[in-house]
Write a structure and sequence with these properties.
about 170 residues; alpha/beta; 4 helices; about 20% helix; about 10% strand
Length: about 170
């Protein structure tokens, strides 16, 4: 499969819906997206967001934010943009604080299971540290990125899902 990270022979969902149903169920459920919400390359994405001053890139924990940052930074260099990058992880609580916070949900020492947590994403962040993540007025573009970046309450373009092909160029 070339340099694709997808290591399966499972059939791919078609690009466009074909109306196929199976026992009354939509086989390929989908919904329409607004224009300019998915980009074909990191170059197009960089050009799109470089017109603003402040950008928030938020997403799931498993997203390779550092890989995306490096690729975007390379494109911004080509565009001649001075970018101030802020990784929202700078505002995370310490590992000891998180472990202490999670302890009530972990179950007994010999237990295989704990209980469902009532913690929210914001509970993992030091709120004062989160507020201290500031925009640099000297930069052409300020980007805060990482899981929970929205919690910093920056005003700017919000990208909650990473563009297709963002880690492959």
């Amino acid at each position: 499969m070339g340099n694709s990270k997808r290591e399966t022979t499972q059939y791919l969902m078609p690009h466009l819906r074909n109306g196929e149903t199976h026992e009354g169920y939509e086989v390929y459920p989908s919904f329409e997206l607004e224009e300019n919400r998915i980009f074909d390359s990191i170059k197009i994405f960089a050009k799109k967001i470089s017109s603003g001053n402040s950008v928030i890139i938020d997403g799931y924990v498993g997203v390779d934010f550092e890989g995306i940052r490096k690729k975007l930074d390379s494109e911004f260099n080509v565009l001649g943009k001075k970018v101030h990058w802020v990784n929202v992880e700078l505002a995370l609580k310490s590992e000891d604080q998180i472990n202490l916070m999670a302890e009530p949900f972990m179950g007994d020492v010999d237990s295989l299971f704990g209980s469902r947590t009532t913690l929210g994403l914001e509970d993992y962040f030091d709120l004062d540290a989160l507020k201290s993540l500031k925009i640099d007025s000297e930069s052409d573009l300020n980007i805060i990125y990482g899981s929970g970046a929205q919690l910093a309450n920056w005003s700017g373009q919000l990208f909650e899902r990473i563009p297709r092909g963002s880690t492959s160029g």
